[in-house]
Amino acid sequence: LSQVFSYHKKYISALFKKHYRISVVEYIRTVRLSEACHLLENSDLPIKRVAESAGFRDALYFSRVFRRVTGMSPTEYKHSVKID
Q1: For residues 70, 74, 76 and 81, what is the CA-based torsion angle, rounded to 10 degrees?
Q2: What are the residue ranges of helices labelled H in 1-84?
Q3: What is the pLDDT at residue 81?
Q4: How far is CA 9 from the centre of its chain?
Q5: For residue 3, what pLDDT is reported?
Q6: 30: DSSP letter
Q7: What is the pTM of this model?
Q8: How many C-beta atoms lie closer than 10 Å to residue 41's C-beta?
Q9: pLDDT at 4
Q10: d(C-alpha 26, C-alpha 22), whole Å
Q11: What pLDDT digit, counting tens, does each position of 7-44 carry?
């Protein structure tokens, strides 16, 4: 973002947090987790592919973050939303 707008990254971060009351990093993580939930609900992709498709480079990190936010693992979430 700082390159796109030609401002220092600390300035962009402070401005973003002031207006949205969430850090840029938290916002990006939220968007990625939302996409991961959508993929878990609507596809049969393996967890590793869901993590990659949602923008996480590491599936293990994705699983830790997902569990911290949702209270369940991606696999548990996937099974809880699937209605057979």
Answers
A1: 80
A2: 2-5, 9-20, 24-42, 47-53, 59-70, 74-81
A3: 86
A4: 21
A5: 86
A6: H
A7: 0.84
A8: 12
A9: 87
A10: 6
A11: 999 999 999 999 999 999 999 999 999 999 999 999 99
